[in-house]
Amino acid sequence: MIATMAAEVQKAVLLLSGGLDSATAGAIARAAGYALHALSFDYGQRHRHELDAAARVAEALGVVEHRRVSFDLRVFGGSALTDEIEVPKHAASTVEDDIPVTYVPARNTIFLSFALGFAEVIDAGAIVIGVNALDYSGYPDCRPAFIEAFERLARLATKAGVEGRKIVVHAPLLHLNKAEIIRRGVKLGVDYGLTHSCYDPDGDGTPCGACDSCTLRAAGFREAGVEDPALR
Amino acid sequence: MIATMAAEVQKAVLLLSGGLDSATAGAIARAAGYALHALSFDYGQRHRHELDAAARVAEALGVVEHRRVSFDLRVFGGSALTDEIEVPKHAASTVEDDIPVTYVPARNTIFLSFALGFAEVIDAGAIVIGVNALDYSGYPDCRPAFIEAFERLARLATKAGVEGRKIVVHAPLLHLNKAEIIRRGVKLGVDYGLTHSCYDPDGDGTPCGACDSCTLRAAGFREAGVEDPALR
Question: Superfamily for A11-226?
């Protein structure tokens, strides 16, 4: 999706969660020549250790700047990631239309909307998001049709779009599985020891090893034939 | 746009700013039979008196509930409404493609995204937004094509959409001018004395009378042949 080196250095807003996927998406965008402006969210998520991981990954990626927006999605409730609903263990959902309880309503729509505002203010030509349709097929807002619809919206929603400057949405992991993502990242020098994936870590950030996210991560490293440096 | 009485009471998320437009949009949706769940934002705007107005209007509309989401758009800067840029006086911009400095990047996209999350959690079938393409033609995110693109996105972004329950976006003021909006509202019993429009009020909330918003409001009341009760 990001095939060619940008002719001149273009700015991209990188949605950075501190997880494995967004770290890899950032490394791919950096390798494509983008100057990265990272954006993270503190939205009342259970897994706030992600935010510390996001700061570490941003530094490792050499981003131009890293901004953080705070809001509280708990005002709506509705997800095991922000609510008092229990995070499910040993039950990864990868079936189409079987939407897991860890799904946060409209989360990626909200994240992309803030990224769009940020992109417009700094005059960035791209937004980079590490969504992945294979491992998260249960999340509607991780699917290709959603990304395309948002890109279309971005053209109509912004001063930049109206004035003919297109803001593209790069989702370079969209069609990769976890093992392929890890292999790409390792080639690009991503230090996965800096990343955090667990939905339900201990107080000190130790992954539970049993939630969907831990299970997918472990399977990905196993299939890629790489040791997970976060578990060393 | 909301032509028929809903067959059974349907929930709608109402984006409520406390201004004249959203109060009228709410009254139209209520008259169409919707149970209203109001949503307001505290986003670091200069005109925070809007938030008090939103609470008064919500009560007058008899909403089921009124939730407020806080975030800080000043983290991006870029608009006279959230920034240190001066609010322009006596210079209403209504020219297509002449985008005013009071435009907040991606604001309506962000607002609609939160409304979408809220709609999904409470299982609402509609989002109501008081945008108006005539008086705000300078704002890309107040145009019909934008609203349509968001509705399309909503179908793809949500569990509800994936499961076949459509979330529609009602923008009942889209093609009305300010005077027509005021006439509709007066017929529906909206008390405009509760609403707040000024972009740059005094400390006690007194409208400046000179910003784009005050100017449009005054012209609307004049043209509608109605006295503005907020100025009594």
Answer: HUPs (3.40.50.620)
